[in-house]
Design brief:
The protein is largely without helices or strands and about 60 residues long. The protein has no helices and 2 strands. It has strands spanning about 30-35, 45-50. A two-stranded antiparallel sheet has the order 1-2. It is extended.
Length: about 60
């Protein structure tokens, strides 16, 4: 899993932790919403997700 030692790791630089393109196109209309479970900054719409995705937490 991820932990504090991964803070600052370059996700594009070939480390053990990274981001990879699996070839799946991005959704045509991602949903933008306010973040949940926060008190500070909760009003900012910084949460993006694919509508109907079973891996998205709900309010």
């Amino acid at each position: 899993g991820l932990h504090g030692d991964h803070d600052g790791v370059d996700l594009l630089g070939g480390s053990a932790v990274g981001l990879w393109d699996d070839g799946t196109p991005p959704p045509s209309e991602p949903v933008q919403a306010t973040r949940i479970g926060l008190s500070a900054g909760a009003e900012h719409p910084w949460r993006w997700y694919v509508d109907g995705d079973p891996n998205v937490s709900r309010r």
